[in-house]
Design goal:
By secondary structure, the protein is of the alpha+beta class. Helix content is 46%, strand content 18%. It is built from eight helices and three strands. A three-stranded antiparallel beta sheet has the order 1-3-2.
């Protein structure tokens, strides 16, 4: 027969609730991200001025349009997005973010992959650049996330700056944990041969 457990021995509070302190990197707010972006625009403008602009100026291609597409605008766009993609993938931050001590990390805190970076810095940023008002939502969203952060499941945080929050965890009492283990691991199953004679066994004769 299985082992009986007296429910009266169970603790009236089998689960204990405990509050602990949880520390995580502080999310970067709207203004620090804004000024980092301004610094990045200055860097990109400088790169464009020493690479693309002289090339188009000396070749006379600056005002040429092919199928309503200006090659100069296409080349500057390549510089713009490539800058964000390469810097974020290799260092996790652009020059502007380096200057202000913030960086991009994934929500699961795993290393940034090429897929994540391309979604964030190319597709997501293209949407944010096209509709510039979308940048403002950084000031109002949880963890100050932009549209491209939601698309790529990333966030921007301060380096070396942590914020403290309370975290509630539940702990099972030791007494009830032992009783649970007894019920699961030490149960005794009934053997039918113990109480009933075998059908193949010849019954005992009485004289």
């Amino acid at each position: 027969m299985s082992e009986a457990i007296d429910v009266r021995t169970l603790s009236p509070e089998p689960i204990q609730v405990k509050k602990v302190m949880d520390y995580h990197l502080k999310s970067a707010g709207f203004w620090i991200r804004f000024w980092a972006y301004m610094i990045d625009l200055i860097v990109i403008s400088s790169l464009t001025a020493i690479t693309v602009k002289p090339l188009f100026f000396f070749t006379g291609w600056e005002d040429i349009k092919i199928m309503y597409l200006a090659p100069y605008g296409f080349a500057t766009g390549i510089i713009f997005y490539s800058y964000f993609v390469i810097m974020t993938k290799i260092w996790g931050q652009t020059v502007g973010k380096m200057a202000l001590g913030i960086r991009v990390i994934s929500e699961n805190e795993q290393p940034l992959t090429w897929g994540t970076v391309l979604f964030r810095e190319w597709i997501g940023r293209f949407i944010s650049v096209t509709i510039k008002l979308l940048y403002i939502i950084v000031a109002f969203t949880p963890k100050h996330k932009a549209i491209h952060d939601y698309i790529a499941d990333t966030k921007v945080v301060h380096e070396g700056t942590f914020e403290k929050t309370e975290k509630v965890i539940t702990i099972e009492t030791t007494e009830n944990q032992k009783l649970r283990e007894n019920m699961e691991n030490k149960s005794i199953t009934r053997d039918p041969n113990d109480d009933e004679p075998s059908q193949l066994q010849e019954p005992e004769r009485f004289e």
